[in-house]
Design brief:
Number of domains: 2
Low-confidence stretches: none
Helix content: 10-25%
Largest sheet: 8 strands, parallel
Shape: globular
Length: 330
């Protein structure tokens, strides 16, 4: 299906943050990424991608600014960059990747760097809360959900709370403070930067088909395998639900089971103490996650529209993964 574009004018600018602008085009909600399209202002003539909203897909209910015809046609790329994001698509653009700046290939030994592997973006906040503010934590975004890092209000809140010190956009993901071609390089870069831990996850939302392997959660397996191969300590955050209406996600989600099928290196599933451990899980370590509510106070917590009172074990499990990873730094 071709890209569905619509011409319009910016009729409102709701808010601006680093890397993202929320606005309205002809009265419809829209987001813009100025690093890709240039600055945007009231009255600008723009092209908007309206396809996801028109098809009624779970895209957040907003359009995406594709091009700014008023002030975005004279943008120039970074002359130092030689790697393209979204290559050979209409949105290809050059971004300087960390690997391009390495004069000498760094050592590949992560020396036990704890890596929390999440299958959903909604696990990131409680996982980082479990790691705590005293640690230098990198957030590493992988493909499988939304690609722009600036779209995440959660990551912005974690940065403000000093629970995340830097962000890395891997592969097609965009808008991180650093870009890397692969998750393996991203973890090596985190080690080079002196990070104490890394939290890997997909962006907001998730690619899903209801099938065994056709979903974005498998990014957690990729992160776990890379961490284990490079000498890191992989910790998996299980997806648990007591309120999901879909049987495949009730209890331990089939997403987590699919991730575990594809994990080949050493990885430990963090499990909140007090909840029965499913027999199908392999290497599990039970963790006291009783303090998750206090640790997560003030952070955005939402899973498929449900909050902490509706899904306590979901957030407790992700927090447990952070706590276990923190113990690995000792």
């Amino acid at each position: 299906m071709p890209v569905t574009l619509q011409r319009g004018r910016v009729t409102a600018v709701a808010e601006r943050h680093d890397g993202i602008v929320r606005l309205e085009v002809d009265g419809r909600r829209c987001v813009a990424y100025p690093a890709l399209t240039g600055p945007v202002a009231l009255g600008d003539e723009v092209l908007v991608n309206v396809q996801a909203v028109e098809l009624g897909l779970g895209s957040g209910g907003f359009d995406v600014l594709h091009a700014n015809l008023t002030r975005g046609l004279e943008l120039r790329g970074d002359g130092r960059a030689h790697v393209m994001k979204l290559p050979y698509t209409p949105l290809q653009h050059a971004v300087l990747h960390a690997e391009e700046s390495w004069e000498h290939e760094p050592g590949a030994d992560l020396a036990g760097l704890p890596v929390v592997c999440c299958s959903l973006h909604s696990q990131v906040a409680p996982a980082c809360a479990g790691l705590g503010r005293e640690l230098r934590v990198a957030y590493v975004q992988l493909a499988g959900g939304a690609l722009p890092v600036p779209l995440s209000d959660t990551v912005r809140a974690l940065r403000e709370a000093t629970l995340v010190r830097t962000t890395v956009a891997v592969g097609p993901c965009v808008g991180g403070e650093m870009a890397c071609v692969s998750v393996a390089s991203a973890l090596v870069a985190c080690s080079r930067l002196g990070m104490d831990a890394a939290v890997c996850a997909i962006g907001p939302g998730i690619v899903g088909t209801g099938s065994r392997y056709g979903h974005g959660a498998l990014a957690a397996a990729e992160a776990s395998n890379a961490a284990a191969a490079l000498g890191g300590a992989a910790v998996l955050a299980p997806r648990i639900s007591a309120a999901d209406v879909r049987e495949r996600h009730r209890g331990l989600s089939h997403h987590t089971l699919a991730v575990l099928e594809l994990v080949r290196g050493a990885a430990t599933v963090a499990w909140p103490a007090g909840l029965r451990v499913p027999e199908e899980l392999g290497r599990v370590e039970e963790v006291d996650a009783s303090g998750w509510r206090e640790a997560c106070s003030g952070l955005p917590l939402a899973h498929m529209g449900r909050g902490p009172d509706e899904e306590p074990w979901f957030f407790a499990a992700a927090y447990a993964a952070g706590v276990l990873a923190r113990a690995r730094t000792a």
